[in-house]
């Protein structure tokens, strides 16, 4: 059953074009995000959160910057996020999810609330 919330979701990962759409968004936007995030991820045992992770490109970038630690890739429908040993994939609605108040050293969000 489709709800009003589902119809208002701009980047629905369940559509036939979703894999292409999230990949293209990454190609367009990742370079700038990586430039900004690159200097912020250093440290041991860091826990990072990528909200509405889409194709997981930034989650993977963040995980590749870590020696150890964890990246939580959070998305309403995380089916397009490839596995990585330092990435935990979590599904949920960012508007209602319990993400804690001081759980993460860095939180990345892009095209989240439009």
Describe the structure.
- This protein is α/β, with parallel strands linked by helices.
- It has helices at 4-7, 18-37, 57-65, and strands at 46-51, 69-75, 87-91, 106-109.
- A four-stranded parallel β-sheet has the order 3-2-1-4, covered by helices on one side.
- Helix 3 links the parallel strand 1 (46-51) and strand 2.
- It is globular.
- The two termini are 23 Å apart.
Q: Strand-residue fraction?
A: 15-25%
Which spans have pLDDT < 50 for at least 5 consecutive residues? none
Tell me the number of strands: 4
Report the end-to-end length measured between terminal Cα atoms: 23 Å
Output the structural class.
alpha/beta
Widest sheet: strand ordering:
3-2-1-4
Helix content: 25-40%
Envelope shape:
globular
What is Rg? 14 Å
Average pLDDT works out at 85
Largest sheet: 4 strands, parallel
How would you spell out the order of helices and strands? HHEHEEE
Number of helices, counting only DSSP H or I runs of 4 residues or more: 3
């Amino acid at each position: 059953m489709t709800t009003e919330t589902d119809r208002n979701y701009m980047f629905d990962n369940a559509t036939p074009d979703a894999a292409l759409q999230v990949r293209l968004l990454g190609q367009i936007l990742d370079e700038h995000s990586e430039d900004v995030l690159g200097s912020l991820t250093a440290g041991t045992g860091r826990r990072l959160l990528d909200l509405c992770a889409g194709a997981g490109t930034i989650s993977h970038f963040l995980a590749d910057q870590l020696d150890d630690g964890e990246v939580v890739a959070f998305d309403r429908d995380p089916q397009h996020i490839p596995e990585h040993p330092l990435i935990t994939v979590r599904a949920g609605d960012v508007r209602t999810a319990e993400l804690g108040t001081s759980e993460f050293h860095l939180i990345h969000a892009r095209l989240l609330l439009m």
